[in-house]
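Postdoc handover notes: sequence design on the structure in folder B. Input tokens:
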């Protein structure tokens, strides 16, 4: 679930324009725009020592036991209990700005869909990060799908509102509250 997402290089949202400007100033050429795949470096917002940083981070934690396979998602329901993710959830949370995310139908003909928010221009995907061999790496948190997603997949990303971004990154109790919020209703369109 949630193994590809879209991050435009020409956003309409002023907040994301600022993120892109900071990334271009501090990390030119070190991150991808467009469709972000596992293993790609993407723009990430992380909380370190109470302040927000914009960094390039690679999509996927390396699996320690599974020869090169990447861990892409962490379940919100168990993130605080799983040894692979528990420490990162307590102290190393990330936000991945996105225009939308992709999912494929699992019944009938395989169809690729783009999921977006109806009123917001930007999705703020909740994730976790780690440092591995000197690079930031991230996974995306997922939750059970809501009614707008369930026809296509049984899981969906945890999505923060713009007002929840800073608290999610800097305050553990606020991050726990974001995990308990119901998944936001999404629009679905066919993607090429």
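Designed sequence:
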């Amino acid at each position: 679930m949630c193994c590809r997402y879209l991050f435009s290089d020409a956003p309409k949202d002023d907040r994301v324009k600022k993120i892109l400007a900071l990334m271009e100033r501090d990390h030119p050429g070190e991150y991808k725009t467009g469709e972000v795949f596992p293993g790609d470096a993407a723009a990430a917002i992380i909380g370190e020592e109470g302040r927000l940083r914009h960094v390039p981070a690679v999509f996927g934690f390396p699996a320690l036991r599974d020869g090169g396979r990447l861990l892409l998602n962490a379940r919100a329901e168990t993130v605080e209990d799983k040894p692979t993710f528990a420490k990162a959830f307590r102290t190393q949370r990330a936000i991945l700005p996105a225009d939308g995310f992709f999912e494929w139908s699992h019944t009938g003909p395989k169809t690729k869909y783009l999921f977006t928010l109806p009123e917001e221009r930007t999705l703020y995907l909740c994730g976790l990060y780690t440092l591995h061999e000197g690079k930031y790496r991230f996974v995306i948190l997922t939750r059970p799908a809501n009614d707008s997603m369930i026809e296509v997949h049984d899981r969906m990303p945890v999505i923060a509102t713009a007002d929840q971004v800073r608290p999610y990154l800097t305050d553990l109790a606020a991050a726990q509250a974001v995990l308990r919020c119901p998944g936001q209703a999404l629009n679905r369109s066919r993607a090429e």
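Context for whoever picks this up: The first strand starts at residue 5 and ends at 7. Don't rerun without checking with the PI first.
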